[in-house]
Amino acid sequence: MGITLLSLLGFFLLSLLYRGQAQDAVLTIEPNWTTLFSGESVTFKCDITGGKGSNWSYSILQDGGAFLPNHKHEKYKLHSLTPGYSGAYQCFFHQKNSTKESNQIYLNVLERPQPVLTVSPSWPSPGASVTLNCRVDHPSAGWSFYWYKAVPQLSGNSYSFELLAGSENGTEQDLFIIDGQTHTAGYVCRAGRGDPVFYSWYSKPKFVWSGDINSAASLTVSPDSVQHFTKTPVSLSCEGNSTEWRVRMFSKPDYLYHCSSWGTMTGSTCTITRGWLSGVFWCESETGQFSNAVNITMECEF
Questions:
Q1: pLDDT of 6 higher than 60
Q2: pTM of the model
Q3: InterPro entries annotated for this entry (predicted)?
């Protein structure tokens, strides 16, 4: 009986010793995100628990094929990922005739995302609050959100972007509230994560419209009506503290046009020459101002 107990105790101690010395290959990644995007970086770390001698080397395999052969450093950083790097990764340690293989980690590398920005309400009452929502497809860990005002750039028929106050370091929430909205304005967002920060593309600009006249920029419609017929010429005139203007139109579901798409621009006046368009119209100036907005419906006249 005593011999049996001693034998069992000895076996148990030997088992503990064997487990303490057992070596397992382990693969980890930094950052610990398995969904990554084009342009981001990832660091592979291959290690053996319990320590390893200097005569170990390792290889990293992607989907079973050689990716990084005979490496000696514990870490390997892969820069500027592309979707072609998607796959299952695994470390293989080599020591003379001995080989150990690690766990597998699957990386899903997607194209750099472009967030979708929504604004609510799009026609707020003067002084009301407006909520911006920035949604990233394939949401993943670690995102912060950055919020911008769109500033018209007439020379390139585009916008520049200025960070909104309170957004300099990003926000954890994908919502941003603007208090006291009084005039027509445009906004964009983008997401960022990591250190250094990896940024998504900018969203498409979205607009908050106001019918209130702005002394720095105003739009007048002739004839003065929100409903027009296709046989009647319609002129949109911009006035204010600027010498150069453009007229923009937003049409559902998500189209943004300038005057040359549906009319002719002469000086500060756009004349509609195509009668099939209906939407929201406004002026933008070289000084970065937005005018009041007007919702115009074009009806066929028989």
A1: no
A2: 0.82
A3: Ig-like_dom (IPR007110), Ig-like_dom_sf (IPR036179), Ig-like_fold (IPR013783), Ig_Fc_receptor (IPR050488), Ig_sub (IPR003599)
